[in-house]
Specification:
25 helices, about 40% helix, Bact_solute-bd_prot1, about 600 residues, about 10% strand, ABC transporter substrate-binding protein, nine-stranded mixed beta sheet, two-stranded antiparallel ribbon
């Protein structure tokens, strides 16, 4: 595999999602020196006290920690290296959980925190060279298609029942993980396990949306209620209303939308993180559309066969072009003028400053910073003036499609790691996602991975101060927010194409259609090279021959699939909204049965 070229500066969404000191970002955190004997009861009790609250009883926590100590005995004294990107959750792991693991097991654990792009680069270095760089990895499940096809990743579902059975936690409870489907490949096997997750949702000023005067004015103008937009038409109407009708609140200029548009690597994930799916690009299917996914890549069996419409893909189809057109229109008309020249890191803090009415593309990893006391969007009693809700969908969207993106940083093992080091790393990776620690970790980072944590009473009590985060994760809507999936055969190679091509549209040097044509062609070119190399074997790309767009439109209609769709005669149907409080009350008040977990 060709490595990512090293870039200067923080270029990934993850590295911007928390405000960390330079030392926390650039330095590594590591565990204390290993004890010379197994953890005694006092050590276990000390860490049980740290790991409160927990979904386990203290007796069961003790049982699980004793298992880790015993299972680690053959590896005591080893020095193990693990890496992840920088967010609050991983900082807690590197600073607290790594120390706990060392004290409990005698394995010296060094957990590095580096930029996400560097994680990918080092991962590719190990996969390319076969030399062990890290013993364990926490990298995005967006790479599931990459891991599956290159055959250099340990298949966890096989490992846990085979070679790694003696070091697999009997209390791990794999079916409790809400993102298990994200890390399952087309062969039905589990390649990774989620360590943290966060979604990309709709954010809005609840206090403004419930203002009687604003509600009356909106209803008089648009003929429907001001509320959470169900479709993009309503989002656009609301953006227009606050920007050009309300204009000012308490003497401050307000805007109906926030985004960013600078041609910069951060523009890439603005779109790979499922913007096209929100518009209605691709096919039905959870976690990702089949045969065409939200990147517009068609897959037949396990083989990607094309990205462009002429090969049966949808990257440059009408739905994709519509998504880019609306992005540019709203950025120009309804966002602060400086937003067009901003990067992700510059745009992220703006809603907290108090003059933005709504934002469709908002990461829940911002929650912790958005609930800080004293900021403009918080009430004096500690409750937020804002809420988060499911994202509205575009005119091409159909029921059964995914509706947004969810990041899932996931634990991963590579075959090139020596067997004993892999086992020791697997113990640590299980420890940081174990039931003993996961609820406390969820409270620290607000990045949920377990159903049992989401429904814990401690989050029922905390929910009113988190602006809808808990309600969303408990809702049936949650399953429609998913990471990049199996159709993408080489995430690093393809993802870097997006910001370069869509950046041409955001800068005005190309039309949305021309930009997406170029992106589709570039993706096809990468897949063609992978096909010729044969490096991905029987599930590598095998491109369809080129046909007319009409051929593929007709085929989708004949087959009963969706993508690529013909251009709609009307891309702005009537706006539709829902009352936020009514929406919340419609969601279930108790956890689903285990068999239905996603």
């Amino acid at each position: 595999m060709r490595q990512f070229r090293r870039r200067k500066g923080p270029l990934t969404k993850i590295s911007f999602l928390t405000v960390s000191s330079a030392a926390a970002i650039l330095a590594t955190a590591f565990a204390a020196s290993a004890p010379v004997r197994a953890a005694d009861d006092a050590t276990i009790q000390k860490w049980i006290a740290e790991f409160q609250p927990s979904t386990l009883s203290k007796e069961d926590q003790k049982k699980e920690l004793e298992w880790f100590a015993k299972a680690a005995e053959p590896f005591k004294g080893m020095e193990i290296n693990v890496v992840s990107e920088t967010i609050t959750t991983h900082e807690y792991e590197s600073q607290t959980l790594a120390k706990a693991f060392t004290e409990l097991t005698g394995i010296k654990l060094k957990h590095d925190i580096i930029q996400e792009g560097d994680v990918v680069e080092k991962l590719q270095t190990q996969m390319q060279s076969g030399k062990n760089v890290y013993d364990g990895w926490i990298n995005d499940s967006d790479l599931i298609g990459t891991h599956f096809r290159y055959g250099q990743t340990i298949v966890l579902s096989d490992y846990m029942t085979g070679e790694g059975k003696d070091v697999t936690d009997p209390m791990l409870d794999v079916n409790d993980f809400i993102g298990k489907s994200f890390t399952t490949a087309p062969d039905g096997k589990l390649y990774q396990l989620p360590d943290q997750q966060f979604a990309n949702l709709y954010w809005f000023r609840y206090d403004w949306f419930t203002n009687p005067d604003y509600k009356a004015k909106f209803k008089a103008k648009y003929g429907y209620d001001l509320g959470v937009p169900v479709n993009w038409s309503a989002y656009e109407d609301i953006a227009e209303f606050f920007t050009n009708d309300i204009k000012e609140i308490n003497g401050v200029k307000v805007y109906g939308h926030m985004d960013y548009g600078k041609k910069d690597p951060s523009l890439g994930w603005r779109f790979t993180d499922a913007w096209l799916s929100m518009a209605g690009n691709g096919d039905k299917g959870i976690p990702n559309g089949l045969p065409v996914d939200e990147w517009g890549i068609r897959m037949e069996g396990c083989r990607p066969v094309g990205s462009s419409v002429e090969r049966g893909g949808d990257t440059n189809g009408p739905a994709a072009v519509y998504s880019i057109t609306k992005y540019l229109e709203w950025l120009k008309k309804y966002a602060p003028p400086q937003a067009q020249g901003m990067t992700f890191s510059e745009a992220g803090p703006v809603p907290a400053q108090g003059n933005i009415a709504q934002q469709m593309f908002w990461y829940t990893a911002f929650t912790a910073d958005m609930v800080k006391p004293g900021i403009a969007v918080m009430n004096a009693d500690g409750t937020p003036k804002w809420r988060m809700a499911p994202s509205p969908h575009g005119a091409y969207w159909k029921e059964g499609m995914k509706l947004g993106y969810q990041d899932a940083g996931s634990v991963t093992l590579l075959k090139s790691t020596p067997a004993d080091r892999r086992k020791a790393a697997w113990l640590y990776l299980q420890f940081i996602i174990s039931k003993t620690v996961s609820l406390k970790k969820s409270h620290v980072g607000l990045t949920f991975i377990r159903e049992s944590d989401i429904w814990d009473k401690s989050f029922t009590e905390r929910a009113p101060k988190l602006g809808g985060l808990i309600e969303f994760y408990r809702s049936p809507a949650r399953v429609q927010w998913t990471p990049t999936g199996n159709n993408v055969p080489d995430y690093p190679k393809l993802a870097q194409l997006w910001w370069q091509n869509i950046g041409d549209a955001s800068s005005g040097s190309k039309t949305p259609q021309a930009a997406m044509d170029a992106l589709a062609a570039a993706q096809d070119s990468v897949m063609e090279r992978l096909e010729k190399s044969g490096v991905q074997g029987k599930c590598g790309p095998k491109l369809n021959k080129k046909e007319s767009a009409e051929y593929w439109f007709a085929k989708a209609e004949k087959d009963g699939t969706i993508a690529p769709q013909r251009k709609l005669a009307n891309e702005k149907p009537k706006g539709e909204t829902v009352d936020y409080d009514t929406l919340i009350k419609s969601w279930p008040a108790s956890p689903p049965k285990r068999a239905s977990l996603q």
